[in-house]
From TrEMBL:
Family classification: Belongs to the HMG-CoA lyase family.
Protein name listed in UniProt: Hydroxymethylglutaryl-CoA lyase
Keywords: Lyase, Metal-binding
Organism the protein comes from: Nocardia kruczakiae
CDD domains: DRE_TIM_HMGL
Lineage: Bacteria, Bacillati, Actinomycetota, Actinomycetes, Mycobacteriales
Superkingdom, natural source: Bacteria
E.C. code: 4.1.3.4
Pfam families associated with the record: HMGL-like
Enzyme class: lyase
Example of a GO MF term: hydroxymethylglutaryl-CoA lyase activity
Domain Pyruvate carboxyltransferase: 3-270
């Protein structure tokens, strides 16, 4: 079995850090990830810098990352101005978020879900003309920090509606880490059934220590792409108590032991996570750098 990993540490991982991160360190994080074999990286977000200050240097980051012809760099897009910036900066793919609940959508994007769908349709059409890979992410697909439970029927309806704009990929995001494997299986099956022309992708946070179980459930349900963040860093600035993503190295350990092919080498990811902890001034949440791979010597002291 083969699966693609998208490392989101440079974007989702760093966007919520309390202190500024140097542009050079962001570029180095991307470079190290490329060297480890990651070929899809969500590197930046083209959001207004007043909303997410840590992403204000998106153009500078993309100007400095390795361009090897194999690595695809994604930018998170919220509006037409963001797409204009992304096109000028040379992104390879865009990710547009449609939030499953109106309250969180207004907090996160300044519009309700209906307007989010309309924005996605408009941006998808423009991005298709530019030849970009187009991902639409349904955020809060497994639960909302403001409205609570999100009915599965609502998420399935959103899948059908965003599929009308012909995305290359539909991602289900557990933005606050409340999903469970049974629901993951049902919603991934819903993507495959309602949008058979789109690649199925999932984005999990490990807020309640179930992110890795959800990733394996998604794999069992036929997902083709999984997001992860080197070191397990990250969190949404607009979701209360949203903690880190599942860690790239911890997920890789599981996939490697299961015989799932990713093309990513685990040792340099561990080394990058340890380096990243130094940049951030605190150990990263991931566990593999402490425990080490098995069999073999500990990965880090």
């Amino acid at each position: 079995m083969e699966i693609t990993l998208v490392d989101v540490a440079p974007r989702d991982g760093l966007q919520n850090e309390p202190e500024p991160i140097a542009t050079a360190d962001k570029i180095e994080l991307v470079r190290r990830s490329v060297d480890a074999g990651l070929r899809r990286i969500e590197a930046v977000s083209f959001v207004h810098p007043d909303r997410v200050p840590r992403m204000a240097d998106a153009e500078a980051v993309l100007a400095g990352v390795p361009r090897d012809g194999e690595t695809s760099y994604a930018g998170l897009i919220f509006n037409d101005r963001g797409l204009d910036r992304a096109l000028a900066a040379g992104v390879d793919e865009i990710n547009v978020v449609v939030v499953a609940t109106d309250t969180f959508s207004r907090r996160n994007q300044g519009c309700d879900t209906e307007e989010g769908i309309a924005r996605w349709a408009r941006l998808a059409a423009r991005a298709a003309e530019a030849g970009l890979w187009r991902t639409v992410t349904i955020a809060a697909a497994f639960g909302c920090p403001f409205e609570g439970e999100v009915p599965e029927s609502r998420v399935l309806d959103l899948i059908s509606r965003v599929a009308e704009s012909r995305p290359d990929e539909i991602a289900l995001a557990d933005t606050i880490g409340v999903g469970t494997p049974d629901r993951v299986r049902r919603l991934v099956s819903g993507v495959r059934r309602r949008a058979p022309g789109a690649v199925a992708r999932c984005h999990f946070h490990n807020t309640r220590n179930i992110g890795y179980a959800n990733a394996i459930a998604a794999l069992d349900a036929g997902v083709q792409v999984l997001d992860a963040s080197t070191g397990g860093i990250g969190g949404c600035p607009f979701a209360p108590a949203a903690t880190g993503n599942i860690a790239t190295e911890d997920l890789l350990y599981t996939l490697d032991r299961m015989g799932v092919t990713t093309g990513v080498r685990i040792e340099p990811v561990i080394e990058t996570a340890n380096w990243l902890g130094g940049v951030l001034g605190a150990p990263v949440p991931a566990l593999l750098g402490r425990a080490g791979v098995f069999p073999g010597a500990p990965a880090a002291s």
